[in-house]
Amino acid sequence: MRILGLCISLWFGSVLAACSPLPDSQAPSQNTAADHKPPRQVLIVYSGNTLGELKPCGCAKEEDQGGIERRMGYLNSVVPKESNLLLVDLGDNFKESTRQGRIKARYLMAAMSEMGYDAVTLGDRDLLYGNEFLKKQDSIPWLASNMELEGMNPPRTRIKTFDDGLRVAVLAVADPNLFYVSDHGGLTMQDPAEAVKHLLPEIERTEHPDLVLLLSHMEREKALKLLDLDGVDVVINGHIENESDQIDMQPVVRGHKIFMQAAPLGQKMGELRVLIDGGNKKIFQQRMVRLDSKIPDDKKMTALHDAYDQEIEALFFETLKAKRTKDRTQVYATESTCKTCHAAAHETWEGTRHAHAYATLKAVNKSFDPECLQCHTTGFEKPGGFISEIDTPELKNVQCEMCHGPRLDHSQAPQGGFAPEARQACSQCHVRKHSPNFNYKTYWPKIQH
Ligand code: HEC
Ligand code: HEC
Ligand code: HEC
Ligand code: HEC
């Protein structure tokens, strides 16, 4: 009955494996030696699929989750309360091979090294900047059980022993099919299941772990199969295709084993509490913690993010020079020209949020961030489009020509026939991540002109 008592007093949220009386634990056990062990527990906290999201953009309340400031804020509240805590990441930390993407990656790694991870899986995205970049992140506890990376040699297993003697073995495998092996010099991979089968007997013999945690980086269906491997107690999977990828985070419990997936974009932290009784039976309780505005920002991470912003601002001004000397043939007439013939449409537009989209960026000190300007200005990074507030003040905001196309020609020699095309324009910007409630039927009436 000791198990039942612990379930109720220590655990919160939804119970996955039976917390009600367990027939096994009540029956007299044969294993007398193990029975003398007191029940112990460990809290496994997991993140993953971050894709370089240092901070949520704030475009939509529903998606305002995640970021390093809140991740650390969350850890600040959990770490002191838990004597046995294991912090792991499932990989796919990076997003794009641009200069900005690389800068972000560097800051994310700096943040994660402060957070005190115990193991970080190497996913396909994590090799985006090559081995040299990864090698520099030497304070990150990379783990790769079926992978050799030239010059890096991440360990194949990590064993964590807590003060009460509880031992957890952690392994991490990735699906070789996700890696464009030819692009990554010095990468060799083995079959994930074979690697685990090869490593586990030795670990069990020499380390006697109480719990075996397998981190995996692959498609959900493939990862689920790893749960069947002998000796594996917990599988946590990660992998994300793109920022709009939906991830099924529903845990799967099979006997005394459990499978889970990390949330997209680091938006939620996973918590798995494992209670291990004297007979080494495990009970699991899992929940996802939303990193939303209720979680306080960590000051150190805020400072780190401010430093990132400064670096992006410097990069923005550095690239201005090249943009100014590029071909600046005018293609946009700008809203003030459209106004001369379409006064009524213009007046309506002025009353919509599209006409204030640039001020929104200024208000959050992001008017220099290319990742924001693309949707909050007119023609950013397109020929003749927005460069900066100083160079092209007339192209701020989401103007007529973001929906109707560049229309300098039309404004000089008006012809019709292109209005219906504008209905297709919304999806450039009103994508799920930035506008999850978008629906043409409900949004169009708000800006109809
Ligand atoms: C893919 C296009 C896109 C990108 C990129 C983008 N935004 Fe947005 N943003 C939108 C859209 C669309 C909305 C309106 C969402 C809605 O209400 O449905 C919005 C709304 C906002 C709002 C809310 C305004 C309000 O008054 O509620 C803020 C703040 C904002 N964006 C900031 C940013 C920042 C900062 C970045 C860069 C980190 C950024 N956006 C990048 C499309 C984008
Ligand atoms: C170039 C990017 C872009 C395009 C194209 C675009 N929008 Fe937007 N839209 C935005 C941004 C950015 C905001 C938020 C502006 C802000 O508040 O700063 C927004 C806000 C809105 C809002 C206000 C939401 C609210 O709840 O008040 C509506 C409505 C809207 N858009 C409808 C549309 C429709 C309909 C289309 C297509 C016909 C469209 N938008 C095309 C970027 C775009
Ligand atoms: C957010 C996207 C968006 C913006 C910004 C926008 N429009 Fe439109 N506009 C549309 C759509 C969508 C239609 C309707 C197309 C349809 O259903 O036929 C439309 C229709 C029109 C029409 C035809 C109206 C009619 O009666 O047939 C005119 C004229 C027009 N827009 C001018 C403007 C001008 C001028 C501006 C800037 C001041 C502007 N639009 C800004 C999306 C936009
Ligand atoms: C010199 C006056 C003038 C200017 C400037 C002008 N338009 Fe027009 N616009 C017209 C006239 C006239 C029509 C009707 C053309 C027709 O039906 O043949 C029209 C029609 C339209 C239509 C409806 C097209 C359709 O399918 O029937 C849209 C949309 C539109 N204009 C958008 C714009 C935008 C955006 C700008 C600014 C870039 C702009 N116009 C600038 C005069 C102008």
From TrEMBL:
PROSITE patterns for this protein: PROKAR_LIPOPROTEIN (PS51257)
Signal peptide extent: 1-17
Pfam families: Cytochrome_C554
Organism (species): Nitrospina watsonii
Highest taxon of the lineage: Bacteria
InterPro entries in alphabetical order: 5_nucleotidase/apyrase, Cyt_c-552/4, Metallo-depent_PP-like, Multihaem_cyt_sf
Protein name in UniProt: MULTIHEME_CYTC domain-containing protein
UniProt domain Cytochrome c-552/4: residue ranges: 337-405
Keywords, sorted A to Z: Signal
